[in-house]
Amino acid sequence: MMNPDYNHLRLVKYFGLKNYFFLPKAILFFTILCNTSLSAQLDTNKKPYSFYEIEEEKKITTTIQRLVNSTDNRDEGYQLTHKELNSKKFRSARFKADLNLILVAYFNRKSESDSSIYYAKKVLTFDNFSNDTLKNNIHGLAYHWLGTINHSIGLYEKSKKWHLKGIEVSQ
Predict the structure, then answer these.
(1) Do residues 17 and 23 lie in contact, with contact meaning Cβ atoms separated by under 8 Å?
(2) What letters, b where the CB count within 10 A reaches 16 and e where it falls short, cover 1-16?
(3) Residues near 23 by Cβ (< 8 Å), separated by ≥ 6?
(4) Residue 155: exposed, middle, or buried by beta-carbon count in 10 A (0-12, 13-18, 19+)?
(5) How far apart (Å, rounded) are the C-alpha atoms in residues 62 and 66?
(6) d(Cα 115, Cα 100) in Å, to the nearest integer?
(7) d(CA 10, CA 16)
(8) Positive or negative, the Cα torsion across 48, 54, 56, 60?
(9) What is the pLDDT of residues 32-67, one digit of tens each?
(10) Is residue 132 within 8 Å of residue 140, measured between CB atoms?
(11) Please, what's the b/e burial string for 64-88 (b: 16 or more CB within 10 A of its CB; e: otherwise)?
(12) Of the N and C termini of the chain, which has fewer Cβ atoms inside 10 Å?
């Protein structure tokens, strides 16, 4: 068995420390420093969504989709979509993107390509999704709509470009 004084001398010689009790304090200080620097990098402004808020958003989205897809209540669905987009209630990026995609489909059915392109490009501005897969799928859908709209107005090269970009993003 080694003498504790010998271990003390080895630590002093190896680390160049006069008191090896400094080492655990340094490790503790370093650990606290790392934790505070990591928490400072996290975005604390984001409000975590509860299960009920997400379910409420899904119900609103499906209701609006049914209204917009029906032949009788399209304008009512359009007004409800704008009401939800302009509400001051804190909403997720997915909900906003879904509502904008509904507006893209609404204006595409009405053959108003400028409005459809506007809302499709607006979807591409949303970046703060819960994960990258969701972001890529929603952006891929927006690129698909841009390709479809450009194809319907006769811009075939632009349409091809948007479709290829959508495929690239989705993979």
Answers:
(1) yes
(2) eeeeeeeeeebeeeee
(3) 11, 15, 17
(4) middle
(5) 6
(6) 11
(7) 9
(8) positive
(9) 545 544 444 444 444 555 666 778 888 888 888 888
(10) no
(11) bbebbeeeeeeeebbebbeebbeee
(12) N
67-80 pLDDT, tens digit per residue, is: 888 888 888 888 88
Separation CA 141–CA 127 (nearest Å): 14
Residue 112 CB: number of other CB atoms within 10 A?
A: 13
Q: What is the pTM of this model?
A: 0.68
Classify residue 89 as left (phi > 0), alpha (psi -120 to 50) or beta: beta
Place of tokens 């996290």: 42
Distance CA 76, CA 52 (A): 25
DSSP the chain: ---HHHHHHHHHHHH--S-TTHHHHHHHHHHHHHHHHHHHHS-TTSPPPPHHHHHHHHHHHHHHHHHHHSSSSHHHHHHHHHHHHH--S---HHHHHHHHHHHHHHHHHTT-HHHHHHHHHHHTT----SSHHHHHHHHHHHHHHHHHHHHHTT-HHHHHHHHHHHHHHH-
Residue type for 34, please?
A: C
